[in-house]
Specification:
65% of the residues lie in helices and 0% in strands. It starts with a helix and ends with a helix. It contains nine helices and no strands. The protein has 196 residues and is mostly helical.
């Protein structure tokens, strides 16, 4: 398989796993992150195949989505071998995908990983980010907001994480994209509190 065929196979594998997810970490999230990763990787001179492959698989094994993370990662790596990813590609893809999550509080070691992290964070911003926040909160039984208890509400998540993301982007390309989406979210919150 050439790299284009490998990416097609990875996309199908991800569709199978995430097509029915209702937390905002669905197949379309992976698709947007992969597309944004490809765009940023071109601008930043990264390895297109490694970056895009890592983008597609970045949520496989995430403990907030899977009860047995290591099993999912083992299955993924078995799959990547069946589509003829080399050992070098396997290592680079896994390295690029492993430190993407905001909750880990780490910056990926490679340019490709930094780009996937940026693309994932961009998808948490703007109109899509607002929608995903409420989808995730609803799936976890969170209130939208509360006058008395603001912790563990979807709106509080904007302050705990989302409004911080713009300043945590790794690449100049991502910083430019994040700026507009960040502004949208601030305007959204102003409107939300006016209505509340």
């Amino acid at each position: 398989m050439n790299n284009t065929e490998k990416l097609d196979a990875i996309r199908e594998y991800i569709y199978y796993i995430f097509s029915s997810d209702a937390t905002g970490h669905d197949y379309y999230h992976m698709k947007r992150v992969a597309r944004m990763t490809s765009l940023i990787a071109k601008q930043e001179g990264a390895d297109q195949f490694i970056a895009e492959a890592a983008a597609w698989i970045h949520d496989v094994g995430d403990s907030k989505l899977f009860s047995n993370s290591s099993d999912e990662l083992d299955k993924l790596n078995d799959f990547l071998q069946t589509i003829n990813c080399t050992q070098s590609q396997l290592k680079q893809i896994n390295t690029a995908a492993k430190d993407v999550s905001f909750s880990k509080g780490t910056t990926p070691a490679t340019l490709e990983g930094k780009i996937v992290q940026d693309a994932d964070r961009i998808d948490a911003l703007g109109a899509i980010g607002v929608a995903r926040t409420f989808a995730f909160g609803g799936s976890k039984g969170q209130l939208i907001w509360g006058n008395d208890n603001k912790e563990n509400t979807s709106i509080q998540h904007f302050y705990d994480k989302l409004l911080k993301l713009k300043d945590l982007m790794n690449t100049s390309t991502a910083r430019q994209i994040a700026e507009e989406r960040h502004s949208f979210m601030k305007n959204y919150l102003d409107q939300f509190f006016n209505e509340w």
